[in-house]
Amino acid sequence: MGEEKILLKDKDFAGAEDIANAKDMPGSKETSAGAKGIAAGAKGIAGMDGSKTNVVISGTGVLAKTVRVSKKGDELYSCSRCGTCLSICPVYKNTLDEGVSPRGKLSLIEAAANKTLPLTDKLSQKIYTCTMCNYCTKECPSGVKISELFRAVRQDLVDSSKYPEILDMLKDKIKTAYNITFDTNQGRLDWLKQIPGITLSDYVKDTAEVVYFVGCVSSFSPRSFSIPRAITEIFKRADVDFTLLGEDEWCCGFPLLSSGMTDAVTSLALHNIGMVIKKGAKLLITSCPSCFHTWAHEYTELTGVKPDFEIMHVSQYLLRLIQEGKIKLNDISVNKAGIKVTYHDPCDLGRNSGIFEEPRQVIKSIPGIDFIELDTNRLQANCCGGGGNIESLNPALSSKIADAKTDEIFATKAEIVVSACQQCERTMNTALKRKKGEIDYKVKVLDIAELVLQSMNAEG
Amino acid sequence: MPDVIVRVSSAEQISRIMRFANLEKIPVTPRGAATGLSGGCLTVNGGISLVMVDMNRIIGINPVDLLAEVEAGVITIDVDKAASKYGLFYPPDPGSLKTSTIGGNIAENAGGLRGLKYGVTKDYVNALEVVLPTGEIINTGTKTVKSVVGYNLVDLMVGSEGTLGIVTKAVLGLLPAPPARASILATFADMLDAAKTVRDIVAAGVITATLEFVDNVTINAIEDYLKVGLDRSIGAMLLIEVDGQQGAVDIEAAVVTGVCNDNGALSCKQATSDEERNKLWAARRAALSSLARIKPSTILEDATVPRSRIVELIEAVKSIAKKYDIMIGTFGHAGDGNLHPTILTDLRDSVEEAKVEKVIEEIFIETIKLDGTLSGEHGIGITKAKYLKLEISEDAYQLMKRIKKAFDPNNILNPGKMFLT
Ligand SMILES: Cc1cc2nc3c(=O)[nH]c(=O)nc-3n(C[C@H](O)[C@H](O)[C@H](O)COP(=O)(O)OP(=O)(O)OC[C@H]3O[C@@H](n4cnc5c(N)ncnc54)[C@H](O)[C@@H]3O)c2cc1C
Ligand code: SF4
Ligand code: SF4
Questions:
Q1: Does the CB of B44 have a partner CB in chain A at under 8 Å?
Q2: Nearest ligand for residue B288 CA
């Protein structure tokens, strides 16, 4: 018998480390008829499985915010465990770990709210294993407000000090320097200052029609400098009366919101709104979809202020400039029948903000492009792997998700993959480099603005 | 709740786990994607939850023999995708096909929308590799079209709900993908006319690929959710698809349209493009989701009767709903007599819960009276265990228990399912 026990400890079990404490894994309430039917069909069994029978969660308890958002458990209860979300969730598909699937996370949350499971670090880790791509919420047949619950539970985890340490660093950086990097906020315009011969006052004005909100990543990460550079060049050439905020641009707060640290965001929001009003702008433009999402969908609720300027993502504004004839687009195909181009919908721009068509229209209005959709697109677009802080919390998983995206790109045979997000561009670029040996042609990742500029610069 | 979860990746590992579990008398419960609708993968008495999803290799497709060889954790739709590269398809298409595993499909003998013409999972399982509860690994079945050698263990495994062995590999049958198809949506003022149409289509000699029924409650739910412009006042609609060679499809579509009109269809519309077809299907696919949004608990039943009795079943369900004043939406694969009366309620309310129990029991009793069966495709598991003897005789029950004992003398594989005693 002893021998048999040793046999089982054998390292060749793929899931050796996965012979996890079952308590960290939801295994229970199976599906709508399955588990809820248990209550009707075979009483008593339900309790043993920890399946949900009477989960009206009451009182404040450990997950106060979640309990409130879930309407005392109603919202959690309405997950029928049908498993639809398993077929789409990037973190599940790339780990096959039920504990990080949307339905798995929901049952962990429910168990924690019910106090049948303690709030452990491991549980918290599972909940944070999420790109916040929101695909599950959009596809859930029962209409469970999953992302709202995820956000509430992250807030609760922050309140109970059960969250990844790395987030403290992020919070400190934003609180002290108003950006997500180790730099001071004076570095906001380094991407611009490095361009020879520019006059700063042409870019940072006292007043202007349009404010371009660059965002932390594009401002500080040299790999993304090409995006604000392209945008400002296009704006200049199209005679747009615009200004940057420079040092007065503060992090939009999105990284904190998605981490569950909502409280710290209101002051950032108020500051940013005030700065745009001070410039007398009629229009605010962002190039980062997450900044856009935060400006367009979060700020008013957070601050109670409803700014009277318009908020646009740069892809929408580029389309306007094209339609107004302010930009001249030239054929980029150079002697070819047409260059194959595909487009990746960033989660925060597409699924979370409903902007699907404008970027496509911009791409299609460029002569010499043979546009081809990715296998998953628009509402069904797979995440690139760069969302939800997952790149820093679980780099290996992030890479795996990105690799799957790359396979989709390869399947189109496109030579250019366009995105409208500096984070997607970065994640996809890294993945394409990693996998370049798999194809015998080159694939380039371009931001939508970079593509437009390339077309403006092409031989007319 | 399970005591441990083991993610397995080979038959040999499972074999060792089973030998160990027999020595220690630890219950083992196989788990595919956990989309089952009768509680089959739940660990009733704790023990080991044996997670199969890592065994997801498609070993090969043989386009000449029309076979696919796959591991048990492969997701259903992936078999079909692999087959499509050869112009073939894997016919069983449960609504859960994007999530469910082949092992789970085999264990539950899953059906799908195409069941009327193409049958169910059992019709496509040629051979299996199975780890027996006592740890032996057996291969059973053949890659041939026919075979009569010893007892048919393949068919015994199919539908055994993970109680007789753990399927690790399967050789599945494939078919050439039909080159043409036509989709027709017919609406009826009275749901009984729709039910009669189902009967008459088959009587007219047409075996449609799908013949789906959606009742008024479900139509209204779909309209609330999707707002696709369905007429809320109609009694029922049928979604019919015929497939095959173009010429045959044209003739069959004409016959179907004729039968619908003869039965007083309010409208009968054939999709003229893929886009239109997708629109027609979107409504049907949304049926369950739309119902699920109405109340916190959704109980999907699975009563199945001979096609000729479908009108009676629909009427029975309607009157049960009225008697108990409970909301039941009915839709399903009417062509093969398999309906899904879906009870909408809140099981956290004990009064509702007691009522639901009565409703279910009455539906079952009516179904059996109509020569029907408790479950067309979802299995017995936990949820229907107590009704098993409504349908099968004491002698048959005892024989089943002896079979179980022969396979699993210590009763460690998925205990607590199917048999209550
Ligand atoms: C939205 C939705 C739609 C559905 N539509 C249909 C439909 O149209 N038709 C239909 O028939 N069903 C349908 N189902 C039910 C369900 O999807 C099927 O029963 C499916 O076959 C279960 O597969 P699974 O991988 O999820 O198995 P699980 O639920 O994990 O397990 C089901 C049973 O199989 C056993 N099992 C799993 N893997 C193995 C293995 N390798 N060897 C031995 N036993 C094993 C388990 O122990 C359990 O008893 C639907 C379910 C949902 C949620
Ligand atoms: S899709 Fe929705 S209802 Fe289904 S398991 Fe996922 S969260 Fe639950
Ligand atoms: S938001 Fe995306 S990554 Fe997170 S659980 Fe939902 S589908 Fe998975």
A1: yes
A2: 1
- Tell me the mean pLDDT in the region B318-323: 96
The enclosing domain of B18 has a CATH number of: 3.30.465.10
Q: Which ligand is nearest to the CA of A347?
A: 3
pTM for the whole structure: 0.92
Token digits of residue A263:
């409280």
**In-domain check, residue B412:** no
E strands, A339-402, in order: 339-343, 369-371
Question: Smallest CA–CA separation between A380 and chain B, in Å?
Answer: 14
User: Do B131 and B14 meet the contact criterion of CB atoms below 8 Å apart?
Assistant: yes
Number of separate helices (H) and strands (E) present in chain A:
24, 8
- Closest CB to B378 among A20, A33, A35: A33
Q: How far apart are CA B13 and CA B140, in angstroms?
A: 19
Task: Using CB atoms, pick whichever of A20, A30, A56 lies closest to residue B36.
Answer: A30
A105 alpha carbon – ligand 3 mean position (Å):
10
The closest of A376, A379, A434 to A403, measured between CA atoms, is: A434
Determine the number of helices (DSSP H) and then strands (DSSP E) in chain B: 14, 17
Q: Which of A4, A33, A53 sits opposite B19 (nearest CB)?
A: A4
Q: Does A74 touch chain B (CB under 8 A)?
A: yes
- Count of A–B CB contacts within 8 Å? 191
Q: Is A407 on the interface with B (CB under 8 A)?
A: no
User: What spacing in Å lies between the alpha carbon of B75 and ligand 3's midpoint?
Assistant: 19
Residues B8 and B78 in one domain: yes
On whether any CB of chain B is under 8 Å from the CB of A32, the answer is: yes
Q: Do A27 and B2 touch (CB under 8 A)?
A: yes
The Å distance, Cα B100 to ligand 1 centre, comes to 6
Task: Name which of B184, B178, B194 is nearest B276 in CA terms.
Answer: B184
CATH architecture of A69-159: Orthogonal Bundle (1.10)
Q: Which residues pair with B363 in a beta bridge?
A: none
pLDDT in tens, B199-224: 899 999 999 999 999 999 999 999 99
Residue B416 contacts residue A46 (beta carbons within 8 Å): no
CATH of residue B188's domain is 3.30.70.2190
B340 & B218 share domain? no
- For residue A243, list its beta bridge partners: A211
First to last CA, chain B: 21
> How close, in Å, is residue B132 to chain A by CA atoms?
17
Q: ipTM beyond 0.90?
A: yes
Kindly report the nearest CA distance between residue B179 and chain A, in angstroms: 23
The total number of structural domains that make up chain B: 3
Q: Do B129 and B141 share a structural domain?
A: yes
Between helices A448-457 and A357-364, what is the axis angle to 10°? 20
| Segments forming the whole domain that contains residue B362 | 295-390
Cβ of B33 and A86 within 8 Å? yes
Q: Do B35 and A33 touch (CB under 8 A)?
A: no
Sequential pLDDT tens for chain A (460 residues): 333 333 343 333 333 333 333 333 343 333 323 333 222 222 222 222 333 333 444 445 678 888 888 887 788 888 989 999 999 999 999 999 999 999 999 999 999 998 889 999 999 999 999 999 999 999 998 899 999 999 999 999 999 999 999 999 999 999 999 999 989 999 999 999 999 999 999 999 999 999 999 999 999 999 999 999 999 999 999 999 999 999 999 999 999 999 999 988 999 999 999 999 999 999 999 999 999 999 999 999 999 999 999 999 999 999 999 999 999 999 999 776 899 999 999 999 999 999 999 999 999 999 999 999 999 999 999 999 999 889 889 999 999 999 999 999 999 999 999 999 999 999 999 999 999 999 999 999 999 999 999 999 998 6
CA of A145 to the centre of ligand 3 (A): 12
Class of domain A328-457: alpha beta
Kind plus residue range of the DSSP H or E element containing A9: helix A2-9
Q: Tokens standing for A288?
A: 């980062």
